[in-house]
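Hi U.,

Before I forget, here's the chain from the pilot set. I'm dumping it here mostly so it's searchable later in email.
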Amino acid sequence: MVEYQKNFWKLKLQTCAEALSKNNFETHIADDCEQAAVIFNEQIRAALKVTSASLGDSMSLLATPILDQLKADPRIRFIDTFERGIPRDELIERRRQALLVDLFLTGSNAVTEKGQLVNLDMVGNRVGGITFGPRHVVLVIGRNKVVADIESAFMRIRRQAAPLNGARHKGWKIPCIKTGRCMDCKSPQRICNTWVITEKSYPKGRIKVILVNEELGL
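Structure:
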């Protein structure tokens, strides 16, 4: 990417970060995924007493080295809620346990320039962890998730994030996979079940946001 584009997005992220900070989110800006991991380890995690951690589904988070580093730390009891080969019933139970960890990590479907988080969830464990339970929450958010306002966030999620998330689950039968847009379906595999708007972090600083100057996730 050429320098002027990088600088344009840096300014946009700074504006978003200022709005998030005013809304009591602890906010950081990273140039890329590697720097996001450095910020997480040296600025965020170093200031916390963490012995347990888990995650909510997030392609943005998976693009960074953060999860691998946590899993490799013998001091951390990591609850893997997406471990391959594990029966779904057990994974659901792990997702329940994940709501009581010291540190919960995930991403966000959208973040507004006014400093609000907007998320849509299927099971509810991801938005549940953001809202209440874990002592600390860290969200990794790429610049492509920044939108003007809540209405734009709804539009982005319905027209882009939700259909793309449906499409990455092979074999699922939901109409948005074929149409490329939300059909407000009644499928038993519907992924659009729970909307959550987070206006402010409570308590102050509980939710920590790393804005990354790269295109991440869907």
